[in-house]
Write a structure and sequence with these properties.
By secondary structure, the protein is α/β, with parallel strands linked by helices. It has 10 helices and 10 strands. A hairpin with a 2-residue loop joins strand 1 and strand 2 (16-26). The protein starts with a strand and ends with a helix. It binds adenosine-5'-diphosphate (ADP) and magnesium ion.
Length: 254
């Protein structure tokens, strides 16, 4: 059974069909690539799957459960967590505080428990802090852990965005252009980190425009065009498909 299975997923905005019946599966343990020309609907697909934007129709099965119609916090608590194409954040908070905030979104966790300062809450806080440190070490951000997030370079902000997703203890992460605008050295570094995720039991679905990056990390690669899946397979397989090249050329001409 696939970890994520989408069937005939549809979404329109103001009469414009953006997702026109998307069918796809993501197998557990993979780093699956999602590519396609600008405007293909990739980010919209992430928005719908993560519960940010409701689907008009269709099915989203995650870990055997139907989650279409579930709100974003329910979806993330179920273990499906996404990052954003444009990094968001709280300018005044440190790297450590950012990680702590995203780790707190856990089942059974309440502000009340944190406020009353029970022993269980303190233990939970200590475990969370250890997890934040571990995540920072894993992403090689530990030397920056007390810096304000705004002091990070563009690439380090991308790593922090990934770190926040990891703090939620996901089974599946949806990464929207995790290396957009990042220099090649840091892009390689981010790639190295992502290759570790399946070994930690985390499956990855990632959108990226850099084909070298996709070729190095992703198998399979799913190609979207005009709101539907065009084809999927190994990078070499999809690259050899003339329809894929035409989709990119068509989008550039448009
Ligand atoms: N909230 C929205 N309101 C209106 N149109 C939207 C909205 N979100 C996405 N779209 C439209 O959906 C299409 C696909 O966009 P997007 O999913 O961002 O594509 P991609 O990520 O593949 O480049 C675009 O034409 C975009 O303008
Ligand atoms: Mg996009």
């Amino acid at each position: 059974m696939p970890l994520l299975e989408l069937k005939n997923l549809r979404r329109a905005f103001y009469g414009l069909d953006v997702l026109r019946g998307v069918d796809l599966s993501v197998e557990e343990g993979t780093i699956t690539g999602l590519i396609g020309p600008n405007g293909a609907g990739k980010t919209t697909l992430f928005n719908v799957v993560s519960g940010l934007v409701p689907a008009d129709s269709g099915s989203i099965r995650f870990a055997g459960r139907e989650i279409a119609g579930a709100a974003a916090d329910i979806v993330s608590r179920a273990g499906l967590v996404r990052t954003f194409q444009v990094a968001r954040g709280f300018p005044r908070l440190s790297v450590f505080q950012h990680l702590m905030i995203y780790g707190r979104e856990q089942p059974g966790e309440s502000l009340w428990q944190a406020v009353i300062g029970s022993r269980a809450a303190r233990e939970r806080e200590a475990a969370l802090a250890e997890r934040a440190w571990e995540t920072a070490r894993f992403l090689r951000l530990d030397h920056l852990i007390d810096n304000p997030a705004t002091a990070l370079s563009g690439g380090q902000k991308k790593l922090l965005e990934i770190g926040r997703a990891l703090m939620a203890e996901p089974r599946l992460v949806l990464l929207d252009e995790p290396t957009a605008g990042v220099n090649p050295t840091l892009q390689n570094e981010i790639g190295e980190r992502l290759l570790e995720l399946p070994k930690r039991g985390i499956t990855v679905l990632l959108i990226e425009h850099d084909m070298g990056f996709i070729a190095r990390l992703c198998d399979p690669v799913i190609v979207m065009a005009e709101g539907q899946v065009l084809t999927q397979g190994s990078f070499d397989f999809v690259r050899a498909d003339h329809r894929v090249r035409e989709a990119y050329l068509g989008a550039r001409a448009a």
